[in-house]
Amino acid sequence: MKILLRYLCCLLLLASSAGCIVQSTGETEVGVRTRKFALWGASGVENYTYPPGATYFFLPYINDWHTLDTRLQNLEMTQDAKAGDRKAKDDLVFKTIDGNDISLDVIIAYRIDPKMAPFIIQNVAINDLMLRQKVMRTISRSLPRDIFGELKTEDFYVADKRQAKADKAQEVLQNILRPMGIIVERVLSKDYRFNPAYQQAIEGKKIADQLVEKNKSATRASFEEYRKKVEDAKGEVNKMVAQADGEFQQAKIEADAYLERQQRIAEAIEAEGQAEAEGITRLNQALSGAGGEAMVKLEIAEALKNKRILLLPMSDGGLNLKTTDINKLLTYKGVRALEKEQEEEKAKDKK
């Protein structure tokens, strides 16, 4: 009986082979087959991912076919009806941690894991539209509200703080969606808007803060300029002090050198005087001895050497030095001597 059933099934397959249906996948799509009825093996979603860009043949009626797009997709939720994921106002509206209303444009970049395509078809969504609307949109609109709502109102003006919350939202979404076969690549925050009245107040405060910072900067600049002038003055004073110290040291060195020279001159003069005094003392000692008279005579002889000596008679009847005018006598003797020399020269000339 079992053999008969197998033959019947084979006949049915052969009879229906001419009516096989053709399934294919696009360049960025993967396919998943579902067995509604299985002649052998298990029925249900086949745990196999059919690669992109291929064509496959399946028997009709007993097989079902689904495809999923694997390219990177953007779920954009924005206030602009022409640019967002929906043709209506679709931005995230929530309150900041300090209680102010704010709306934020957010883009979620995601893709599916091709290896988990069978799991997605069986447990998450049977096509891309359902995956986008029922799963991605629902989760992506709730969690980022809570995460960005942790910021204060003024924190939205700081790009680094917004980016930090976007990174945190990407991490949280990834932890939830990754087990479903969805990979969240990035969360981007775009434009944000406050209540108009509050927006105007914030802008006014920002302008006031800018003026305060400007005044602080001007004050710091003035202080730095004043400090620079003080440092310049200190430098000038130090320069003058150094110059005065240098002149003082130079004058001191010159004075010390002059004093030393004078001391050496005085010492030399003193030594010379002492030597001369010692010489005179020794000379006096020598003159007072036995040879002193001879030395005196010798000195007199040396003094009278080459000198003209005039002898005058001093006997009785001779010159009387007490009454004789020595000056007239010398003059007379000199005139007579001169006349005698002239006469001798004339005599020589005549010869």
pLDDT averaged residue by residue? 82
The CATH H-level homologous superfamily of the domain at 73-194:
Band 7 domain
Please state the CA-atom Rg, rounded to the nearest Å: 68 Å
Order of helices and strands: HEEEEEEEEHHHEHHH
Briefly, what CATH class of the domain at 73-194? Alpha Beta
Main beta-sheet annotation? 4 strands, antiparallel
Just name the CATH architecture of the domain at 73-194.
2-Layer Sandwich
Count of DSSP H/I helices: 7
Write the CATH fold name of the domain at 73-194: Tetrahydropterin Synthase, Chain A
Low-pLDDT parts are 14-18
- CA-CA gap between termini: 204 Å
Q: What coarse outline follows from CA principal-axis ratios?
A: rod-shaped
Strand share of the residues? 15-25%
The percent range for helix content is 40-55%
Supply the helix-strand structural class. Answer: alpha+beta
Write a concise keyword list for the protein shown above.
4-stranded antiparallel β-sheet; 351 residues; Tetrahydropterin Synthase, Chain A; alpha+beta; 3-stranded antiparallel β-sheet
Secondary-structure map with pairings?
Layout: H1 2-16, E1 21-24, E2 29-35, E3 44-45, E4 55-58, E5 63-69, E6 73-77, E7 92-95, E8 101-112, H2 117-123, H3 128-148, H4 159-177, E9 182-194, H5 196-287, H6 292-304, H7 326-350
Antiparallel strand pairs: 1-4, 2-3, 2-5, 6-8, 7-8, 8-9
